[in-house]
Amino acid sequence: MKPRAAMRMRVRAMIRKESLQILRDPSSIAIAFVMPVLLLLLFGFGVSLDAKHIRLALVVEQPDANTASLTGAFAQSDYFVPVGYHEIQTAEQALVHHQVDGIVWLRNDFTSRLLGSGDAPIGVFVNGVDANQARITEGYIQGVWQVWLASYARDRGHDLVTPVSLTPRIWFNPAVRSRDFLVPGLIAIIMTLTGALLTSMVVAREWERGTMEALMVTPIRIWELTVGKLLPYFLLGMGGMLLTVITALWLFHVPLRGSFLTLIVASALYMLVALGMGLLISTVARSQYVAGQVALVATFLPAFILSGFLFQISSMPDVIQVITHIVPARYFVSILQTVFMAGDIWPVILTNSAALLLMTIFFLGMARRKTRKRLD
């Protein structure tokens, strides 16, 4: 038999072996197809960075037409659930007992100062336990107050005098939905689990079951062994990715403004990185338990915390920002958020793709170097 034909036969046999192993292992199918859907449902419906339905205490000491107009502005907002109080002490107790998240206090001289000097400050108290929501709540209250002041001045034929007039325009996510930001990044987390976690078990499982010795005495070469093991998991991971994208577009209506082909190519490149990391881990660790734990700590946790999926990298300490450059998911999350929300912005896509390509070469090269046809 010709050497090239023998090589193809060995690779096909290895691919068939791994494919049968995947089909006989329900956990592999669950990780590739069931887990992505569950994570999408969890993050899409259960996790939100949007501050809505904020319980707001409205303390009005001297009710009149002006205070009713202002409290009505808070009631009409989609962000607040107002609760009326007559005394500030009662509202403060409600804030302490977490019955409300903030307080707006209109003192008894609110209208007189508004009609007199035009300077009618309002008291604002915000629960600062959750610093992010506290800042958002404060901004929403300030926004309602400014809009109401402008309406109040316009009704009386005056212009609201402000030193700076802001005309905001929100690019890429005009609805300001955190779901449109979270779901694309979640694809990177899912592919990390599918690629690195599953592949980390491949060689370790062979050692535990004693079948690695049988493979060592066959004519198969190391690179043929690597291709035969990785290709079925590559296809499995890409299938899970396609299912995730379809679910994101159909169920959560996440926009895909870039090219679908660009998304496929970038995802395939990142899947090779994840497979390379998993194969390297499985080659070094000869126990499935150890390989799985190392894969979670070395791939999943950095992808979840240091990739920009949930936490803004620019807000991290400088040392941590430097560390994020060795996290492959950082580059893929940037590509995903760009393709989904902005489109094919090639400087961003090509720069991050080049980083992923270098990491692919590094991890697959290290896995190849660590793999030997020896039993020691």
Q: In summary, what is this structure?
A:
With 376 residues, this protein is mainly α.
Structure description:
There is one protein chain. With 376 residues, the chain is mainly alpha-helical. It contains 15 helices and four strands. It has a four-stranded mixed beta sheet with strand order 2-1-3-4, sandwiched between helices. It is elongated and about 100 Å long. The model has no long low-confidence stretch (mean pLDDT 84).
Shape: elongated
**Which range best describes the helical content: under 10%, 10-25%, 25-40%, 40-55%, 55-70% or over 70%?**
55-70%
Query: Could you tell me how far the N terminus lies from the C terminus, measured between alpha carbons in angstroms?
Result: 32 Å
- What is the helix tally? 15
Main sheet: strand order: 2-1-3-4
| Cα Rg | 28 Å
Order of helices and strands: HHEHEHEHEHHHHHHHHHH
Number of domains: 2
Q: How confident overall, as mean pLDDT? A: 84
Q: Give a quick account of the main beta sheet: strands, pairing sense, barrel closure.
A: 4 strands, mixed
Low-pLDDT residue intervals, each spanning 5 or more residues: none
Strand-pairing-aware structural class? mainly alpha
Q: Give the beta-strand count.
A: 4
DSSP strand (E) fraction? 5-15%
